[in-house]
Amino acid sequence: MSNFTVKKMNKFLIFKLPAAYFTGVRVSKLTENEVEVTVKHRWINQNPFKSIYWAIQGMASELTTGVLVMKHISDSGKKISMLVTRQTGDFYKKATGKITFSCKGGNEIKNAINRTIDTKEGQTVVLTSKGFNEQGIEVSSFTYQWSIKVKVK
Which of 39, 86, 89, 119 could form a disulfide with 145 if both were Cys (CB 3.0 to 4.6 A apart)? Predict the structure, then answer.
């Protein structure tokens, strides 16, 4: 069991991803299979159209996938590298109010980590993070391809 908690991940943001922290990106849920991250529309994270700037949405969505990968790497007890190798995003509605991004790819990550440990070959895992407003309407969706590989001594 890893020592990943919501509180520790938000502290991590202050020191390792200060741009995300200062623009209001926060981890709100962390389980074995899902991570949720929220961000509220504020002056510091808005675009000229009075909605959350796409890059802030990207930070929040990537964090949902990255925290899940980091958690499962930590749980494996192995030294494994991770890197985003592809990213796409789609936008459906203005992001105003509080937006919650969610990634539910824990099982896919765990399987990819087991494969890289067993084969010593790099693996890729494609994860999707969807952002919903307070009314439950999807405002954006991001897909990340993560490359993971067990580090050989």
Answer: 86
DSSP class of residue 105 equals -
Q: Is residue 1 part of a domain?
A: no
- Flag whether 129 is in a domain: yes
Q: How far is CA 3 from the centre of its chain?
A: 17
Taking only Cα atoms into account, the Rg of the chain, rounded to an integer number of angstroms, comes to: 16
Range of the domain at 51: 6-150
Q: pLDDT of 49-92, one tens digit each?
A: 999 999 999 999 999 999 999 999 999 999 999 999 999 999 99
pLDDT digits 0-9 by tens, 87-109:
999 999 999 999 999 999 999 99
Q: How many domains does the chain have?
A: 1
